[in-house]
Amino acid sequence: xxLSVQNLQVSFQSGQDAPLEAxxxxxxxxPERTTLALVGESGSGKSVTALSILxxxxxxxxxxxxxxxxxxxxxxxxxxxxERLRAVRGKEIAVIxxxxxxxxxxxxxxxxxxTEGLRLHLGMSSRQARSRALELLSEVGIPEPGRRLDAYxxxxxxxxxxxxxxAMAISCQPKLxxxxxxxxxxxxxxxxxxxxxxxxxxQRLRMSVLFITHDLALVNEIASQxxxxxxxxxxxxxxxxxxxxxxxxxxxxxxxxxxxxLEGRPLRLRVIDDFxxxxxxxxxxxxxxxxxxxxxTILEAKGLCKDFPVREGLWRKRLFRAVQxxxxxxxxxxxxxxVGESGSGKxxxxxxxxxxxQPDAGEILFEGESLRTSRERDPMALRRRxxxxxxxxxxxxxxxxxxxxxxxEPLLLHGIGRGASEREALARxxxxxxxxPASAYLxxxxxxSGGQRQRIAIARCLTVKPxxxxxxxxxxxxxxxxxxxxxxxxxxxxxxFRMSYLFISHDLAVVRxxxxxxxxxxxxxxxxxxxxxxxxxxxxxxxxRELLAAIxxxxxx
Length: 557
What we know:
By secondary structure, this protein is an alpha/beta fold.
């Protein structure tokens, strides 16, 4: 057995409070040349388990129980000294973290960071290490490795950054690779490339992989063994076929069912509590999708273009066209899904329609009137009618303001409410409407989970009663169960207020579930558009077919 985790118990001490038990009696075995997936939501203890294996938990606050054992090739790592652990890290056990931009040092070049481990662990000279670094970049599929070697992390795309992290992880040919949510923030096509790359490297280097994720559909693509965790405990373990074909624990069943289905559109998505409540589940009716000829057009883009200056050398600049002649119509009370990879122009299009960027060509009409004219006449009124929910709920809320301040500020700016008490009452009603307790009014954003923060961001948009809501990757960073809750909330709000959505995402399963119409963008242009069912069932453009083929399937084939 390559790795054996036995009765792992980890607690964290914070001040005078009772210790928080993060991991309780977790046990699993990982044989050689095997991929085992640790699956669960945020807070389930997956990452704490992985950090325990590497001895990377903060020793000032983290406590590992005396009866716990982490046996690596017959040796208990919990009993090893720091010198032995440093020898294991990177050389025998390597790790890929979720966010490459946070893991790569922004002040060092890619080559410097790649060669460091080769020089420290393998004793290579600088010339040998650089030569090997070039080979590693080629192995992980980075184009022009010689040029990329001298680039800084911010000069690479997200997928290229993650490939650099993989190159660093495999540089010493470890026996175990720990991949902690390595594809969560990536487009479906890049995600597919990373999974294929990891699979190919595993076979060639004969290594084992501990794959950590919250998405069971992704597990089916790579793992042979599965361990499902919830609140620090193992709820279910077995082979991939056993877990997918006949999950025994209700929590596992819930994780499988929370993802939007690829066939059909139930009126609501299942959430975790639906499975843990003990009440038999009933079949849900289907939600009708599509645009009828009689539907009123509320928003229209005609030949929309947006350019950005790009520096070439010290003195020269050129214009880069991020959005190229995009045209579409959005109906009242309907959803237009906008899909494509990073760099396709999705977000630039959304920001331009929201008025946060000015178009360089083309026209945007709102209820038949040019937004340019409306913006010049009454810019505040326009902002009330079109609102945007951003991707990262941790960055879009001011951490120094209470939730009450965040919600009442737009009411005050737009003159809504006859006084502070009325504005507070409106804010508390909105909190209740998005499923948060009234007590949230006096709390700060850092006191909430990611899903709760996204609900606060949605409530902030609702303060001004918008007619169009732009959702820019607003659920992509959330666990599948929390994602289902937010999608249900968006559906309820659309049904109640007849809002129109521009739903921007790289997750095609989510887009298909939410959308009446779909725009597929590639290199700034719309390559395919139409009714959502028609686009997904019979894609015409090769790029659309490529995107659809990359969707992870949450069932055993």
